[in-house]
Amino acid sequence: MNDQSNENVYERVGGLQWFDELCSRFYERVATDEVLRPLYPEDLEPSRYWLALFLAQYWGGPGDYSTTRGHPRLRMRHAHLRVGVVERDRWYHHMAEAVSESQIDADLQEQMLAYFSMAATHLVNTAD
User: pLDDT at position 1, please?
Assistant: First the structure.
């Protein structure tokens, strides 16, 4: 058995590059999603960049996101957007596909998908 208990997720997936690639795959899907695309600015690159930094930090990487932007405050940062169950489900679907394409261990995929499900639900701020 491979003992990875002393390695955090950030280290296990190979660092920031993995999160950059994850977010690139995710935003490729957002770019063509008729429900989600209107919620984002014209240029998706800043959103991709910040999400990658946030996720890297959340999963055990350097604190660059908080150093630059302060506390994540996810709900507050998204409060100006109408996020209902449909938006939540689309967001989660695209992220789940991006995670599954990463070919990481099943236990890491499960951990990440549980987090993404919780985070997406947390951002719902309106009834459909």
Answer: 40
